[in-house]
Automatic annotation (TrEMBL):
Quaternary context: The basal body constitutes a major portion of the flagellar organelle and consists of four rings (L,P,S, and M) mounted on a central rod. The rod consists of about 26 subunits of FlgG in the distal portion, and FlgB, FlgC and FlgF are thought to build up the proximal portion of the rod with about 6 subunits each.
Subcellular localization: Bacterial flagellum basal body
Protein name: Flagellar basal-body rod protein FlgC
PROSITE patterns on file: FLAGELLA_BB_ROD (PS00588)
Listed Pfam families: Flg_bb_rod (PF00460), Flg_bbr_C (PF06429)
Designated gene of the protein: flgC
Amino acid sequence: MSTLFSVFNTSASALTAQSVRLNTVASNLANANTAASSPEETYKSKQVLFQTLLDRSDPTGAARPVRVADIVDSTAEPIPNYEPNHPQANDEGYVFRPAISVVEEMANMMSASRSYEANVEVMNTSRQLLQRTLRIGQS
């Protein structure tokens, strides 16, 4: 029975991790078109790094909870745009924008959303199996 409960633990940890991933993607999308007057001030896109954990309470080793190991900044160079009339343009007339691909971020968001939905389904199915198991004892 503890294996069944470890499924809830694993799915719950994945839900938390995917929630962080969705929030990070939202932050990247919200800042995709921000401008800065220097490369150092430019927003850097963020990526979430996951890490699986060994669940010592699961004797089969099947349950592998996941956690957010780190959120790292992109190393991509900002994109300089010549916009001399922009209020944040530097002395040469350039503003710097983050190197964020909206298409990649949207794909990342869809992937995180689908992973989140899949883990919700795992939890619902496990709950239904547990309820059906309890009903067997009532008959």
